[in-house]
Amino acid sequence: MIVTFIFLAVLIGGMAIGMPIAQALVLTGVALMWHLDFFDSQLLAQNLQAGFDNFPLLAVPFFILAGELMNAGGLSRRIIDLARAFVGHIRGGLGFVAIGAAVLLASMSGSAIADTAALATILLPMMREQQYPSSYSAGLLASGGIIAPIIPPSMPFVIYGVTTNTSISKLFLSGVVPGLLMGIFLIAAWAFIARKHQLAALPRVPWGQRVKALGHSFWAMMMPVIILGGLKGGIFTPTEAAVVAAVYALLVSTFIYRELTLARLYDVFLAAGKTTAVVMFLCGAATVTAYMITLADLPNLLADSFAGVMGNPVVFMALMMVFLLAVGTAMDLTPTILIFGPVCAPLAVKAGIDPVYFGFMFIYVGCIGLITPPVGTVQNVVAGVGRLRMETVIRGTTPFLLMYVLLLVLMVIFPKLITAPLAWMH
């Protein structure tokens, strides 16, 4: 209990006074070292460096770069144009365009923030022009954006897999069917809203223009085919898949679509480098804390404390999801993975829960946290792009958030929704 108290008190206390999360993690590791009478500055530096020096983590900068290249090189816009050509004529069609584009973009970038920014920048002005309610439009775009970390390739799955020593390839495959279910649940919610508010539809696009839009988006659509096909066929690892995605996006943007100039390429690499630096520093800092958590045997201590609950996997999963959802409302997804992944994953294994299933559920709940106040990272993106009040975005997100929670409950009660398709695909 003393170890747990020190871990939580130093971490939460550091963040409460405005300390960056990475620095709070390092401070937490140092506090645990002092408590265990194990302080060694050289060991601290070695663990910090070990957090960066990890081959699977090379996937992170390349997936970040791929997302930046997609947005700058016109791949994201062509995917949205394709969705608009095929479903824009339905009542509330722009909402269905947003959902379809969100699912397609999710299969390419794996970044909730990047996908949400692309969707909001292009579709929010169009929704305003069609006189859609601003709250529901913004809420839908935010809710669609969080599909990105679920459908592979997914940067959070990479970080979770490295942090907890879980198969990244299996984590990738575990997100395919649930990601599609997220899209279906959004469609159901938006169809009800569109009918209730009598939302307008775009003019029907002739088949000739649909075929043209399909042709324009062909090279963009090939990216998920190459990535998923390569992973399923064992042609490359998730890390190599990230490199393939970045190189492919670069070639398509510069030589096929020709929208990415040399001057803009510098800005793309700079933006990707800044984001990578933040993520990698977090990984290094979390490695320090994770090392001390292991040394203090915290997972086993907690397992002994909650032995009664761990005897029932469904009850344990339900309580764990409530805990992670509470954490996700106050913390971004990457820090949540780095801080609580090493603690929660061993507990799940002791409770008899499949580690890949638990890893998927961990990320899914973290994604829900991205559209849940008070932090609501993705909601802030939509509010910033659309120049909307945060209250407006939160109000519009509520019906879609409830659908996601319903899906969460179903996946806790029926784990086969994830494990059965995963076994078949693997």
TrEMBL record:
It is a multi-pass membrane protein. The keyword Cell membrane applies. Keywords: Cell inner membrane, Cell membrane, Membrane, Transmembrane, Transmembrane helix, Transport. Its main location: membrane. Pfam families: DctM (PF06808). GO terms for molecular function: transmembrane transporter activity. Residues 8-417 form the TRAP C4-dicarboxylate transport system permease DctM subunit domain. The chain crosses the membrane at residues 48-70, 82-104, 139-159, 171-193, 214-235, 241-257, 269-294, 314-344, 356-381, 401-424. It comes from the Bacteria. Part of the tripartite ATP-independent periplasmic (TRAP) transport system. The complex comprises the extracytoplasmic solute receptor protein and the two transmembrane proteins. Belongs to the TRAP transporter large permease family. This is TRAP transporter large permease protein. It comes from Pseudacidovorax intermedius.
